[in-house]
Amino acid sequence: MTSTGTNTAPHVPVLVSEVIAALAIHGGETVVDGTFGAGGYTRAILSAGAGRVIGFDRDPDAIRDGGSLVPDAARDGRLTLVNENFSRMDRVLAERGIGLVDAIALDIGVSSMQLDRAERGFSFQADGPLDMRMSKSGLTAAEFLNSADEADIARVLRDYGEEPRARAIARAIVAARPVERTAELAAIVRRAAGFRPGQKSDPATRTFQAIRIHLNAELDELEQGLEAAERALKPGGHLAVVTFHSLEDRIVKRFLRERSGATPAGSRHRPMVVDRDEPTFERVAKAIGPSERELAANPRARSARLRSAVRTSAPPRKDRLQ
Questions:
Q1: Are 30 and 50 in contact (CB under 8 A)?
Q2: Which of 136, 199, 258, 267 is the most buried (most CB within 10 A)?
Q3: pTM above 0.70, yes or no
Q4: If we measure between CA atoms, which residue out of 105, 110, 116, 156 comes closest to residue 134?
């Protein structure tokens, strides 16, 4: 998955070799691919020797097409596909009688499949209806933009897109309503942001990203998904999370820091908070980015970051990320 851009090439999983190394698959393990998408990580996980993969995706299109993407594993029972949010993985596994798993991979954001299908409305590179719903249910981007007040739209652009001209863009969207197409929205944003052809980055990128994250509650899903992974992993199990946005990466970094007991030291301005819970993760690795070779082959990987850790034997925490 990724957050920006478009590409007519087949789906290429990002940091796939590094993810497989972080999952430490030796053979016969049960692995959760929490964001199945086009099946790129699942194929690599099975090739590495996993005995079984349970693939989750909230997008019904991904589940519908999944069996044909990994046909051998789907036929022989090594692949189980579940049309469900990965934040519910522990409950779904329990409902299916599956115990704690050996490894979990999460690839956060929108998939290349979704970006490259104009009718899904995720990308401004090709005109399509303003949709952006990963699950194909709930409020569309057009419905949000055409009903929300200016302040709410500005807040979404600021909080989830880190857009410095959020208020001006929100005002322009409200003035242009109704907005129904991706090309319409991109043009409105560019005018409001003073975009000139040839500039390095297109301001529409931040707006589309912010609306998508808001509609799909992606940051809440990530927080809850990390907690679900903590509950679903067996002691010694490996967690690997790939993010494409600084907000996502901050959530993963903070979660692993807190769950491993590596909270920052206190100071005279901010006293240290003592964590009395046992660490639930250890061997937290430094973030890994793509190599120059991968970037040359797949520019979408540019903002990708992989963080990984190993589950301890401590019981899972009961609190939510604050």
A1: yes
A2: 258
A3: yes
A4: 110
